[in-house]
Design goal:
This protein is of the alpha/beta class. The protein has one domain (5-288): Arginase, Chain A (3-Layer(aba) Sandwich). The protein is 34% helix and 17% strand. The protein contains 8 helices and 9 strands. It has helices at residues 44-52, 83-99, 113-121, 149-156, 171-179, 191-201, 234-243, 265-288; strands at 5-6, 24-29, 71-77, 103-108, 125-129, 160-164, 184-187, 207-212, 249-255. It has a 9-stranded mixed β-sheet, with helices on both faces. Helix 1 (44-52) packs across helix 8 and helix 2 runs parallel beside helix 3 (113-121). The two termini are 30 Å apart. The relative contact order is 0.18.
């Protein structure tokens, strides 16, 4: 494991639990090489960790407290200087976590880091909370970037994709969704959207959940790489994640916080979302027995 990670200055929720004794393994993925607007998401994993130290730990939604979950923090993926190099390290590291029967919880970094995790987890269903579809064939001349990685993932891997909260998109991406409606759905953050997730989850044995923080309205999360108006609320986001927590979630990530663009609010929101998601996954795990 040492060759993939360097220790973080602070751990998420001040965890000192070793991997073998944990159920959830936090991984920092500070990749920030293909930003098309604001850069700085490489600072996100440590900013989220720092924000987590000042949160209360009891969850009203689940009735769980920090002592009810076992979280390890493996540190940050070593910087390789290239997107593919970073994705290979992420894939290898997540594979070790999954092979240890732990749930990876990855803190990005730009959203492209999700591709590395998907290569390792190979889920049947991906639930993607994002203002953008990330289904372009190229962005700024790049075939592999934060705006194209999901297209590459769908070309490489066999999964269904549900995108929730998408509103900043290109005609090319809309056409791609229409042409691949047996594998991709763009849905709204409401009961009808949850119905679609339920229908597709019945056909799936494993689920991966990914959150790009720009899915949240910029009034609540301004420090993101590509902010877009008319986003959902933090409450809507967490409630929808909780709504799928009874599924067999094999991995989770949160990406695209650019912490230097506000005074800390977005990192605080992100840390809270991560902790509540861990609680929701634990609550679902216990319910499934």
């Amino acid at each position: 494991m040492e060759r993939f990670f360097k220790p973080a200055a602070q751990t998420f929720m001040d965890s000192i639990t070793p991997l073998e004794e944990s159920q959830y393994a936090v991984i920092g993925a500070p990749l920030d090489l293909t930003s098309s607007h604001r850069s700085g998401s490489r600072f996100s994993p440590d900013a989220i960790r720092q924000a987590s130290h000042y949160m209360e730990t009891y969850s009203l939604r689940t009735g769980l407290d920090l002592e009810d979950v076992s979280i390890s923090d493996l540190g940050n993926i070593v910087d390789t200087g290239s997107v593919e190099g970073a994705l290979r390290n992420i894939e290898d590291a997540v594979s070790i976590v999954v092979g240890s029967e732990k749930v990876p919880v990855m803190l990005g970094g730009e959203h492209a880091v999700t591709l590395g995790a998907l290569r390792a987890v190979r889920p049947d269903l991906v639930v993607d909370f994002d203002a953008h579809l990330d289904l372009r064939d190229r962005l700024l001349g790049l075939r592999l970037s934060h705006g194209t990685f999901m297209r590459r993932a769908m070309e490489e891997l066999d999964f269904r994709l549900v995108i929730i909260g998408g509103r900043a998109l290109s005609k090319e991406e809309v056409e791609y969704v229409e042409e691949n409606d047996d594998r991709v759905r763009l849905i709204s953050a409401d009961d009808e959207g949850m119905k679609t997730i339920r229908e597709w989850s019945d056909l799936s044995s494993s689920v991966y959940v990914t959150v790009d923080m720009d899915v949240v309205d910029p009034s609540s999360a301004p420090a993101v790489g590509n902010p877009s108006p008319e986003g959902i609320s933090v409450t809507q986001l967490i409630d929808m994640i909780a709504g799928v927590s009874d599924l067999d979630i094999k991995g989770f990530d949160l990406t695209e916080v650019a912490p230097h663009f506000d005074s800390g609010l977005t990192a605080i929101q992100a840390a809270y979302i991560v902790l509540e998601t861990i609680y929701s996954m634990e609550s679902g795990r216990r319910a499934r027995g």
